[in-house]
Input
Amino acid sequence: MKDFIYSYPVKVYFGEKAAEKALPAELAKTGKTVMLAYGSGSIKKNGIYNEICTYLEEAGKEIIDFPGIMPNPTYKKVQEGAALAKEKGVDFILAAGGGSVIDCCKIIAAQAVTDKDIWEMEFKDHVFPSEFLPMGAVVTASGTGAEMNNGAVITNEETRQKAGVLGAYADFAVLDPACTMSLPARQVISGAFDTLSHSMETYLGSPRDINLSDEIGEAVMRNVIRNMRVLLDDIYDKEARSELMWASAMAENGILKIGKVTDFQAHQIEHQLGAYTDCNHGQGLAVIHPVLYRHIYKDNVKQFARMAEKVWEIPAEGKTQEELAEAGVKALADFIKETGLPSSFTEMGITDKGILKKVADTCNITAGCCKKLSREEILEILEECF
Output
């Protein structure tokens, strides 16, 4: 295990009526003006918006609405939110939504307290913000684990980049499975696969000798697979949604990454695909993962074989490590079909093969959990996803 320093800034309120416990206590610590940020307005239909506003009003807060944060949030939307926060003298940001809303708010929190352009600051000057507006999160769609860290995935439409940007940590996060119950089945399953993806990409990072973080990761992956299957029978199973909500947090709160150098090459490929197609993140990952893993499993056969045995519960007896590893990749592909997630870009509605070279040429290439891919290999993987 590699050396590490671990600290965790996010206070988590988990379970039934978590908002009732969290918001009165946490809002007492904030300034008067609160920006309430959310997406397309589903929280107004399911009652979450009114509930949050009630707590804000009871705490004597002035509410500044910031709606319309889209899936795959844009840098333009970040700048819009930051400008509003400056104009209204916002003291605190409360993000109510899934990963897109929370990610957008993390960067708004950074941009609102500086005149420097955050994108240029991070990608050109390689300097990262250290001052932020404080923020909290009420999670209404789990899977990304965005409430657990300070990384945000933002699309810069001008540069055609969808990239990770560092911003604020939430001071607290409200995780109540009841807040997810109105989500459509496809969104729930897609989000859960994102959690599985986070866990796999962490697990397959270096070092290759299994450590405690990996063994915890195996449990998280088994939990996600089991509870996704529960939801296939009953999408409203509250216990399964509860388990998946906490699994999502566990995959991104740093625990699985302790002592690891993680590799998120599947995410990097999907992010840049999203910059050109605005596709659903979890669905894109579901298409890319098996294809990517068929390309690289022989370069880390030991860990792929262990994942096949410990996560997919494939018997090792009578198989070589390579056969076991290959069986694990097939089990992943079969599971994706079982869940109803797409297995090709065509199934996702992506039809323009002309973008693939652009995606490969602009994709961020990581060191590699097994090997460092070339742009030619990334293009080959993308073409096989059709």
About this structure: The mean pLDDT is 96. The CA atoms of residues 85 and 93 lie 9 Å apart. The longest strand covers residues 92-97. The beta strands are 11-14, 33-37, 62-66, 92-97, 135-139, 151-156, 161-166, 172-175.
